[in-house]
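FORM 12-B: Structure-to-Sequence Request
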C-alpha cells in the first residue's frame, strides 16, 4: 500500500515520511493471516491520522507512509529497504557521492520491523544514511550496540532487561533449578545467552536448555519436541522459561499437554506472553501455571471505533491505494470481521499495537522539533530541508508523554519501559484471561508483585518448588555437590566462625575481639576479663598476705626482744634479717599478681617474686651449709665465714642470668587471649621456656639441695639437728607445695591462674616461718627454761676471729 506525501501535502514543501511495517499475513510456517500484524498496521494508520488531524503537533504538516510486508523473510525485507535509500520511488540504487550530508533519500524515517533478525538486517542498510529506524517489537540485546546500529531505536525494552525481570521473578518464588527453551533464531539464542549468564550470577542453575526445533517437516518437529518434553519430565524440573515465538511455544505446549505433564510452572517471554494462539489451546491449564512478562502497554482512546469503522467498510481501507507499482494487496484484510478483533480482551488488548503507535509519535515529535513548529502560532518552518541525520539527532532527544506514558531513549536507544507480570487465569470457557500480578521497571531494583493474585494449578494450590536442594539454615555453609551451584549439602559453621550472606560457601572467622556460637550468622563482642583487686579471691589473697606480713613482724619483734639469748644465736642475726627483708619483698610482689595486669606489671612481677624467694632459700641453704657437716668439712674458715653471703650472691647471679636470657629471648608480656568463649582474657603471658620454668626450676633445685644438705649434715654430724630438722621440714613443705603447684598451674586457664602462684608463695612463707621460727618463738615465750645452749647446740652466727669453731664437740 503506497501513499505518497504529495497527495496530502498542504505545504509547498513536500514532506516525506515512510514507515516500514510488518504484516505477518504470510507466515512462513502456517501461511496463515496474522491478525497481530494487521492490528499494528491499523494502529500506525490511526496514529498518522491523529497527527494529521492535530493542530498542535506538526500543525499544517501532513505525513505520508508506505507499508511493506516482510513475510518474516530477510530476502523479502531487503527489497523495500534498498528502495528507501534511493531518491526516487521504485528505484533501488544510491547515486555515488563523496559527501552524503545533503543527500535526501525518499524516506526520512522507518518504523519496524518487529523481528530482531530483520531489524539487524534493515539497520545495517539504514545506518549508511543515518535514517532513524524505530522498531516496535525487536528486543534483541544485540541492537543496543551503538557502534553497529547507530540509527536504531525501539519502543520495547531489550531482552537483557527481560532476562533480568525473569531472573528476579524466579528468585521471588525461590526457583533456582530451571529449564530454558528458546526458539532457533536471533531472539532465542541471544536471550538464552543473556539469561543463563544472569541466572548464574544470581546463583541459579539452568539445569536443562534446549533449542526448539524449527524443522519445516511436521512429524520430525513433533518427534524432537517429544524428546524435549520427556527430558523436562524426567529431570524433575518444575519451572521452565520459554523464550519463543508464539508458534513455537504453541507447538511445544501442545506436545507437553499430550504427554500428560502436570503441575509445573511455565514462564513466558514477552513474545508469547499474551499470544492468543497459545491461550486458545484447549485444556492448557492442565500443564500447570503459566506466568509471563508482557511489555507495558497503554490505552489508545478512539482506536476501537477506528477499527470498527475500518471493518465496517473494508473498501474504505483500500481507497487511495496505489498498486500500480506492483506492491501486493492485502487480500485477507477485506474479509475481516469485528469478531476477529474481539478475541483479545483484558489489559493485554493493545500490547503490541501501542508500541507501534508510540513509534509513530516519536517520529512526529522529532520532526516537530526539527521544523521548529510552534503549537500556539500553528506554524512550522516549511522551507527547511529535512535530512535523515538531522532527524536522527532529534529522535535521540525526544522526551514527551503520550497517554500518560513517558517516551524518551537511553544512549543505546532503549526506552524507559518495563514489563507487566501476568498470570494466565483459565476462564470457564477454556480460554485464558491475562491477570497482571505485578510489574517490573528497569530503573527500580525490585519487582513489585502480589503473589496472592495467582491461582496455582497444582494439587495443593501452592506454588511448586523447583530447587535442586533445600536452602541451608542460617549459619550453615554449602558444600557443593557436583557441577551446579544449586546442589549442595549443608554444614554448620563452627564456633567463632560465622556465615556471611555474601559468601554462602565459606564460614568466615570472627575478628579477634568477637566471638560466635556454632551455626551463627553474626559475631558478638567479647567482654574483657581480667583480675581486679576488688574481686573476692584477690581480696582474700591480699588479706592472707597481710596476715603473713603481720606474723613476720610479730616474729621479728619477739626475736629482737630476746636478742643475745642462745635461741637468738640459733636463728638470729644476718640470716633472719635477710629472710625477713626478702620475705617482705616477696609478699609485696604478690600485689602485682592480684591487680589488673598491665605490660609493666607483667614485666616486673616475676623477677620480683623469684629474686626475693631465691634470697630466702639461698639464705637457708647458706645457713644449712654453714651449720651442717658439709660446711664444717670446708677447712677454710674464711670461706666458711662468708659462705652464706657467697651462697646468696651466687644464686642471685644464677637467677639474674636466667632472667636476662628470659627477657632477651621472650620476655613476659601482656596478652589478650581469646581462648575462652565470649571473653577476651587480659593476662600476663609468662613464656615458660626458657624463662618461667628455669627460674622455677632453680628455686626448686635450691630447696631440694637445701633439704638434701640437712640430711647429709645429719649423717656426718649429730649436732645442729634442731636447725637442720626445722630447715628440712620447711624445705620438704616447699617442695611439696611447688610440686603440687606445677601441674595445677600448667593445666589451668582463666584470670585466676596467677593467684595459684600467690598461694604457693604464701604457703612457702608460712612453711619457712612455721617450721623455722615458730618453735623458737614458742620456746622464747612459753618455755624460757629451754632457752639454753644445751637445747640449741648451735653454732654461733659469727665465728670467733681465730676461725676456731666455738661450739666444742663435747657440748
Ligand atoms: C481526523 O479528522 C477527521 C475530520 O476532522 C475525523 O473524521 C477523523 O476521525 C479524525 N481522525 C482521527 C484519527 O482523529
Ligand atoms: C523529560 O522531561 C521532563 C520534564 O518535562 C524531565 O523532568 C525529564 O528529566 C526529561 N527526561 C529526560 C531523559 O531528559
Ligand atoms: C494482592 O491481591 C489480593 C487479591 O487480589 C488483594 O486482596 C490484596 O489486597 C493485594 N495486596 C496488595 C498489597 O496489593
Ligand atoms: C517438583 O515438584 C515435585 C512435586 O511437587 C517435587 O516432588 C519435586 O521435588 C520438585 N522438583 C524440584 C527440582 O524441586
Ligand atoms: C496518510 C494519512 O492518513 N493522512 C491523513 C492526514 O489527515 C487527513 C485529514 O486531515 C486524512 O484525511 C488523511 O487520511
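FORM 12-B RESPONSE
SEQUENCE OUT:
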Amino acid at each position: 500500500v503506497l501513499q505518497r506525501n504529495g497527495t496530502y501535502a498542504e505545504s509547498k514543501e513536500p514532506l516525506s515520511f515512510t514507515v516500514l511495517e510488518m504484516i505477518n499475513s504470510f507466515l512462513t510456517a502456517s501461511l496463515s493471516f496474522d491478525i497481530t500484524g494487521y492490528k499494528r498496521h491499523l494502529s500506525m494508520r490511526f496514529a498518522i491520522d491523529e497527527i494529521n488531524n492535530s493542530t498542535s503537533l506538526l500543525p499544517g504538516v501532513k505525513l505520508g507512509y508506505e507499508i511493506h510486508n516482510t513475510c518474516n523473510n530477510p530476502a523479502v525485507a531487503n527489497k523495500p529497504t534498498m528502495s528507501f535509500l534511493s531518491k526516487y520511488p521504485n528505484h533501488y540504487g544510491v547515486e555515488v557521492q563523496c559527501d552524503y550530508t545533503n543527500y535526501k533519500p525518499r524516506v526520512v524515517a522507518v518504523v519496524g520491523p518487529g523481528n530482531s533478525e530483520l531489524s539487524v538486517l534493515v539497520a545495517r542498510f539504514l545506518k549508511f544514511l543515518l535514517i532513524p529506524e524505530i522498531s516496535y517489537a525487536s528486543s534483541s540485546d544485540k541492537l543496543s550496540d551503538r557502534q553497529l546500529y547507530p540509527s536504531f531505536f525501539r519502543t520495547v525494552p531489550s531482552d537483557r532487561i527481560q532476562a533480568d525481570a525473569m531472573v528476579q521473578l524466579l528468585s521471588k518464588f525461590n526457583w533456582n533449578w530451571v529449564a530454558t527453551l528458546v526458539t532457533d533464531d536471533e531472539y532465542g539464542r541471544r536471550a538464552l545467552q543473556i539469561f543463563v549468564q544472569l541466572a548464574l550470577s544470581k546463583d541459579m542453575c539452568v539445569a536443562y536448555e534446549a533449542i526448539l526445533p524449527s524443522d519445516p517437516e511436521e512429524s520430525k518437529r513433533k518427534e524432537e519436541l517429544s524428546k524435549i518434553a520427556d527430558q523436562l519430565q524426567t529431570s524433575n524440573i518444575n519451572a521452565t522459561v520459554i523464550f519463543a515465538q508464539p508458534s513455537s511455544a504453541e507447538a511445544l505446549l501442545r506436545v507437553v499437554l499430550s504427554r500428560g505433564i502436570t503441575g509445573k510452572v511455565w514462564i513466558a517471554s514477552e513474545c508469547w506472553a499474551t499470544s492468543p494462539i497459545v491461550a486458545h489451546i484447549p485444556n492448557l491449564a492442565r500443564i500447570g501455571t503459566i506466568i509471563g512478562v508482557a511489555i507495558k502497554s497503554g490505552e489508545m482512546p478512539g482506536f476501537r471505533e477506528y477499527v470498527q469503522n475500518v471493518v465496517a467498510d473494508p473498501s474504505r481501507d483500500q481507497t487511495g491505494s496505489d498498486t500500480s507499482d506492483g506492491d501486493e494487496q492485502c487480500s485477507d484484510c477485506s474479509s475481516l470481521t469485528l469478531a476477529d478483533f474481539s478475541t483479545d480482551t483484558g489489559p493485554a488488548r493493545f500490547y503490541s499495537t501501542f508500541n507501534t503507535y508510540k513509534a509513530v509519535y516519536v517520529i512526529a515529535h522529532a520532526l516537530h522539533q526539527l521544523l521548529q513548529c510552534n503549537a500556539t502560532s500553528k506554524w512550522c518552518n516549511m522551507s527547511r530541508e529535512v535530512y535523515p541525520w538531522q532527524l536522527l539527532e532529534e529522535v535521540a532527544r525526544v522526551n514527551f508523554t503520550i497517554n500518560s506514558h513517558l517516551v524518551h531513549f537511553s544512549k543505546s536507544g532503549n526506552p524507559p519501559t518495563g514489563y507487566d507480570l501476568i498470570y494466565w487465569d483459565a476462564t470457564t470457557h477454556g480460554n485464558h484471561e491475562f491477570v497482571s500480578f505485578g510489574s517490573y521497571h528497569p530503573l527500580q531494583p525490585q519487582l513489585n508483585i502480589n503473589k496472592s493474585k495467582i491461582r496455582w494449578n497444582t494439587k495443593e494450590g501452592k506454588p511448586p518448588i523447583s530447587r535442586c536442594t533445600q536452602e541451608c539454615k542460617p549459619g550453615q555453609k554449602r558444600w557443593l555437590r557436583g557441577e551446579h551451584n544449586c546442589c549442595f549439602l549443608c554444614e554448620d559453621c563452627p564456633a567463632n566462625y560465622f556465615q556471611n550472606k555474601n559468601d554462602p560457601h565459606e564460614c568466615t572467622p570472627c575478628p579477634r575481639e568477637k566471638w560466635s556460637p556454632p551455626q551463627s550468622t553474626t559475631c558478638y563482642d567479647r567482654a574483657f576479663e581480667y583480675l581486679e583487686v576488688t574481686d573476692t579471691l584477690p581480696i582474700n589473697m591480699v588479706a592472707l598476705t597481710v596476715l603473713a606480713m603481720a606474723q613476720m613482724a610479730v616474729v621479728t619483734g619477739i626475736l629482737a626482744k630476746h636478742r643475745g639469748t642462745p635461741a637468738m644465736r640459733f636463728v638470729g642475726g644476718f640470716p633472719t634479717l635477710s629472710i625477713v627483708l626478702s620475705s617482705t619483698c616477696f609478699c609485696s610482689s604478690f600485689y602485682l599478681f592480684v591487680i589488673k595486669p598491665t605490660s609493666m606489671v607483667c614485666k616486673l612481677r616475676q623477677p620480683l617474686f623469684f629474686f626475693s624467694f631465691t634470697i630466702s632459700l639461698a639464705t637457708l641453704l647458706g645457713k644449712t651449709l654453714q651449720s651442717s657437716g658439709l660446711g664444717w668439712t670446708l677447712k677454710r674458715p674464711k670461706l666458711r665465714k662468708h659462705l652464706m653471703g657467697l651462697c646468696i650472691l651466687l644464686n642471685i647471679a644464677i637467677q639474674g642470668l636466667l632472667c636476662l636470657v628470659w627477657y632477651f629471648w621472650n620476655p613476659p608480656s601482656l596478652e589478650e587471649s581469646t581462648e575462652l568463649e565470649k571473653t577476651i582474657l587480659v593476662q600476663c603471658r609468662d613464656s615458660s621456656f626458657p624463662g618461667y620454668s628455669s627460674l622455677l626450676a632453680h628455686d626448686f633445685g635450691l630447696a631440694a639441695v637445701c633439704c638434701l644438705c640437712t640430711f647429709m649434715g645429719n649423717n656426718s654430724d649429730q649436732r645442729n639437728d634442731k636447725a637442720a630438722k626445722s630447715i628440712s621440714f620447711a624445705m620438704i613443705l616447699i617442695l611439696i607445695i611447688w610440686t603440687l603447684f606445677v601441674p595445677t598451674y600448667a593445666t589451668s586457664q582463666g584470670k585466676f591462674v596467677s593467684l595459684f602462684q600467690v598461694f604457693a608463695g604464701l604457703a612457702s612463707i608460712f612453711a619457712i616461718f612455721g617450721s623455722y621460727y615458730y618453735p623458737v618463738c614458742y620456746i622464747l615465750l612459753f618455755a624460757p627454761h629451754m632457752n639454753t645452749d644445751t637445747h640449741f647446740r648451735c653454732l654461733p652466727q659469727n665465728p670467733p676471729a681465730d676461725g676456731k669453731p666455738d661450739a666444742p664437740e663435747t657440748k
